[in-house]
TrEMBL record:
Transmembrane segments: none annotated. InterPro entries: GH, GH_1_N_CS, Glyco_hydro_1, Glyco_hydro_1_AS. This is 6-phospho-beta-glucosidase. It comes from the Bacteria. GO terms for biological process: carbohydrate catabolic process. One of its GO terms (molecular function) is beta-glucosidase activity. Pfam families: Glyco_hydro_1. Belongs to the glycosyl hydrolase 1 family. GO terms for cellular component: cytosol. Keywords: Glycosidase, Hydrolase. The active site is at residue 386.
Amino acid sequence: MAKRFPENFLWGGAVAANQIEGAYLEDGKKLNVTDVLVGIMNQPDLKWNGSKWEPALVPNKKYLSHEAIDFYHRYHEDLEYMHQMGFKAFRTSISWGRIFPNGDEAEPNEAGLKFYDDLFDEMIRLGMEPVITLSHYEMPLHLLTEYGGWLNKKMIDFWMNYVTVVFNRYKGKVKYYMTFNEVNNIFRMPFAAGGVLDINPKNTERVNADLTMQQLYQATHYLFVAHAKTVKLGHEIDPEMKVGCMLSLSHIATYPYTCDPDDILGVVDHRRKHYLFLDVMCKGQYPGYVKRIWRENDVHVEMSEDELNTIANFTSDYIAFSYYRSTVYHKDAAIRVDTGGSAGLNNPYLKETSPEPWCWPVDPKGLRFVCNDLNDRYGLPLFIVENGIGLDEAVDENGKIQDDFRKRYIHDHLVQVQESIEDGCEIMGYLYWGPIDIVSAGTGEMRKRYGFVYVDRNNDGEGSLDRYKKDSFDYFAKVIASNGEDL
Ligand code: BG6
């Protein structure tokens, strides 16, 4: 019997405000966290003025996200492309700073609210369900420089103020929300993934140079409280609303290099760094293994009974996650983290990596592994809200962009999504990452292109911003039109 995708499967694509919109200081918006970064893996351009951090944008440095692909002004055209592919859903984020430019105001910025009103109306008009991330690696910079971001408990109130305004304003338009994009990367990228800034540093040369585990676990706790309160509020405002957590779960596809028990236990430890976020946001409990880490490292997270009750009672409605790659753990080898996930040793059983210079291993079965693992562990609906491949591409002499590699990548991953559904996983949808070329999050380049639609802009920021369909455009349209029967 043919394997089928569910009838209401949400096919589509995903982007993030700071990588696509541009207009970084328009209509009242002020600097965001990502505005002072070229890529989220870089140091932010902040300088210490003797008493606090302040923005220090470097003249002539290429902050491509400041203009990005100008989606802010061109979204009608871009959504039309998505519509032509038959998208049933489109994921983007709200730039918190458009709604509250400093983050601590009492009243929102109407121009920002209006922009998203119009954007969501257009998606709905084109038959796309808006799937909205409330914070995708960004927040008003002022909240970090003034308060330290999530190191400060006041953040929960600023956040709830923002979320209350958003939930009320878009009630009836937006059903699917997720809170913090890939918040499980906070330990490796505290500034961008965690929204954390040490505002009492000893080292004033380098941002967050001496952050402690105590600080990071405390910030994580505040994020957990904010997540649970967001779920609670969402259900109160609109019982139809679904609020998910959003995590980078390529990390779970970390395989042991050998059957040496130390490799096996090393993998257990590595995965737990990420399960922690799921365990708290989906099961509502701090797991025993983290309490051991706290004991052994003299970490004392301040938390009240009330907060723990909120965390226990208001868990995620679904798990949204990104999956790009897998990696291999060996007890004597270091593991790095990038936007694709964990990067340890190469896997000799995988045949391919993406081309230079990024060379991410291609492991479609890793996606099936992650889906099954999550289903067995949490039993919640799963939403694949990022999967895709970044390639260095150019228009050829015939005016075409041939991207067979991408078609194959999608095909192979969707086969594994189908297998996962057969295995019994409830999968809500598949949102391809970056359906139109956008600025890469990790390195801040245009050259790393994920799209079905090519955008004429290069790493120097030059180009007409014209859009062109790549070969994969028709391929993905066919997949959606057949509800995945014609892969
Ligand atoms: C995810 C992020 O980690 O990976 C996206 O949520 C990001 O924002 C994507 O763009 C791909 O990473 P990159 O660095 O290739 O853009």
